[in-house]
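Late entry, written up from scratch paper. The run itself happened at the end of the previous shift, but nothing got recorded in the book at the time, so transcribing now.
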Amino acid sequence: MLCIAPFLLEYRLLLKLADAETLTSVTAHLQNLDLVAKQIGSATGQWNTVQEHADKTAIQAQQISDKMSAEVKAFTEFLQRTSDSEKANLRLEAEKLKRAEADWLQVLVRILDHIHALHAGAVRSGQPRVIEQIANFQAACHDAARRVGLSPFAAPSGEPFDPRRHQSMDGEAKPAEGALVSETIAAGYHLQGKLLRAVLVRLREENGSESKTKAAKAQADKDQSQLPLEVTGAPAQG
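Output as recorded:
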């Protein structure tokens, strides 16, 4: 026993040393766990801070988006109002231009009608010199009118009556089939290829006499400037 006792004591001492080392290691690990827990707590706090900032950023982004949507809507409404105003102004200007065009067209047609009547009077006078001068004057006026798209035309004597281009002195009365033109009372007009006014003609009767008396002829010459103007879709002919 005396020989074995030292070994037993040494063994027990080694066990206690091993236990002490194990306890020291466990204590160190526990300290590390405390440090990890602190780090986890710090990370959790930082994450909460980041989450709060993210929430604030999302709210601000939503506010910016709402504000941009409102500005886009307001800008779209402004553009719509501006477009409507411009369209209204353009329509007004277009109506003014149409009225102005109708006015100068009426004036020009009336002048050409009077020139046609002047030429007809010169022809009836039988004076070649006067007829030539008036014809040249009429041709010059027609050339000037064609520059703005207005083309006068007349119906030659003996031409078959065409209701698309001719208008008889009888007005409502429908000419007989095969009726021939006796003379042009008032010129017709094409405006930029469309029929503006049919030519007013006097028709021949079967016996060769004219369909109107001299009094009616004089009245027609007097009233030829009162013929209406109406643009139709008929293409220019002749």
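The longest strand covers residues 181-186.
(Scratch paper discarded after transcription.)
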